[in-house]
Amino acid sequence: MRGKTGSARPVAAGTGGASGGVSAIDRRSDIPFYAQLKRLLREDIAARGLEPGDRLPGDHELCDTYQVSRTVVRQALLELEHEGAVRREKGRGTFVGDPRTSHGFGGALVGTFEDIQGNAGEQRSRTLFRGVVAATAQVARDLAVPEGADVVEIRRVREVDGVPWAFTRTFLPLDVGQPLLDIELEDVSLFGVLERRFGIRFERARRSVEADVANETVATALDCAQGAAVLVMRSVSFDRAGRPIERFTGFHRGDRSRLNVEVVHSADG
Predict the structure, then answer these.
(1) Residue 151 dihedral angles phi and psi, to the nearest 5°
(2) With bands split at pLDDT 50, 70 and 90, how would you rate the model's confidence at 116?
(3) Spatial separation of the C-alpha atoms in residues 254 and 46, rounded to whole Å
(4) Rounded to the nearest 5 degrees, what angle is found at the Cα of 128, between the Cα atoms of 135 and 137?
(5) Where is each HTH gntR-type domain found (predicted)?
(6) pTM, rounded to two decimals
């Protein structure tokens, strides 16, 4: 049974993987033992199809299986716990974690930063770039401006517990976005700033979510491998008059994101 039901199924070490065994630490490698062990444990979890809540071997068993010291095991598990890959409970053991979050994909007309506020963990937002750029053909179509027109672009990285979770690119018409070029944008919602400080009201949005892989730019921003799975949310927001005032693209790490969909029975049958 899964951990959320209050119990977990124990999983012995060395029973999974394509070869039916456990890969060994490469003692000739320059990569620290704990970093190798982290990778091996992740691979073992994936190879055996373990689910959140499944129990993992204890520290002593991992020492024996991988022939490493307890210090190496503790460091590897500490970092995996910080990354959300495992969950350690005092007196009970180590379990497969679930680092994914479903926040940021809801139907509320708020920014991604506000979506994750109030939840467990420390949330941060860092600005990587902001400035005036020429609208590409796609940006021009979405914002209903001429191709090549000046628009404001803002790129940010959202973090949860110090781990990059989403890389966002926002384009706004020059008159809408220009006030954002000279104010502090760390750890705030662009929606909130524009509405509260500048009276720009977002009335509705058209959104889509799709699976993709991280290109070099996205991988660098999210500190993940190029080609890693990402969930991409694209959105165009409109004001009360129907004018498009924001084009948003959010690249969310696939290993830390989940899309929840609530289905309601329609009275129309």
Answers:
(1) -135, 160
(2) very low
(3) 14
(4) 15
(5) 31-99
(6) 0.59
